[in-house]
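B., you asked whether I could sanity-check this one before it goes into the benchmark set. Here's the sequence:
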Amino acid sequence: MSSIHNAEFNSSSLHEVTLRFRLLRQHGFWISADELNKFKNEDGSFLSDIANDPKGLLSLYHAANLLTHNEEPLDEALLFARHHLEVIRCNLKSPLAEQVKRALKIPLPRNIKREEAIYYILEYAQDETYNATIQELAKLEFNRLQRVYLKELKAISLWWKDLSEYVNLGYARDRVVECYFWSYCCLYEEEYARSRIVLAKLLKLTTLLDDTFDEYATLEECRVLSKALERWDERDVSLLPEYLKKFFLRVIENFRDFDDLLEPHEKYRSAYIRSVYKNICKSYLQEAEWSHSGYIPSFHDQVNVSVMSAGGQLVAIGILFGLGDIATNEVFEWAIKKSCTVTACGEVSRFMDDLADFKRGRNKMDVASSVECYMKENNVTSEVALAKVDSLVDHAWKTLNQELFERRDILSIVNQITNFGRSVMFLYHDKRDGYTNSEQVKDALESHYIKPVPM
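And here's what the prediction gave me:
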């Protein structure tokens, strides 16, 4: 990419210019939005001719979604491209019609790579650069990796079966496949098996904790469990209610198992993964305090707590825990101290979840969401509050895009953590909740793990 960035480039093709723009930004190379000026009139508006170039418009739309803060030209490009794609979408032929439909739901920079790969492998046959050998190799590789993932998923499912039967928390969601899916979205490459397994288990243990605080435990039981986890001492099991004793012991046991996966020089990582589990427990407790008292916090306070409970920091440390030497002690410190990447991913998760929850309608004991807190604090309608929260999702993505350049030294890690945000976009787009209501993503899960790409 360095040679592409440094080479002279004089194309007048909208598709070629914006494709280069997107690829360079995705790989951490800063490229100015001025590159698009050749497609504008003197007054700064886009040339009318490009509205009739659907392939170029689609490429412009994807590229503009890599905008950072205070890039008004890319804001304008995004609006222009989206508007014209929506106008012409019904008149497009396959496969461009399907590609535009998917992009208008989730643009490429915000979507999970394996999801788009499922479609593109088949659509590639209609591409002008089609090479049958490349397509065959892509199909073989996708199906081979699918078998790897299915083997891991079976192992995780057996682990969960044993855990769930032992702890016997009947109120807890059975979402082990979805937890693995989240992990797999973050780290789909074959060599990251250790990280995938640890992160999937960590997410499942966190879901059990979340469901306990959210659905079943009394406020006093929440406080006792939080205190026990903070102390991290098995002797405190006697302080817990009977139904939580086995859960508490299994949490500690599983974290010991995580530690056993580490090499001697990696043992320092155990303190970090325990720390984020304790941190998310504290945020669940604060939300329980608010919920049980009927208190509606300020928008600022609600966001501060709920971004932590959304799991960005926990996922980031879970990803790093199983990586190789690239995940240094300094990188762990960067992640634990709420870096821009980690915080922005938590914001994407929180705000997308809140948008879906508001559409669904909250339960009586649910803590007030960011939408409700904004409505109360600013005395505005739900439509205004929803628009505000939706804009905060875009704001978080601008931060994530900025991190591609500012932390290019750890670009692969930034991308892996950002993949959490991408998985959230996939599970929660159109204000659905594909994690809680897994039927909404059943077909997608089957495509990723069960149905091979036809040869």
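One thing to flag: The chain has two domains: 2-110, 149-438. Otherwise nothing jumped out at me.
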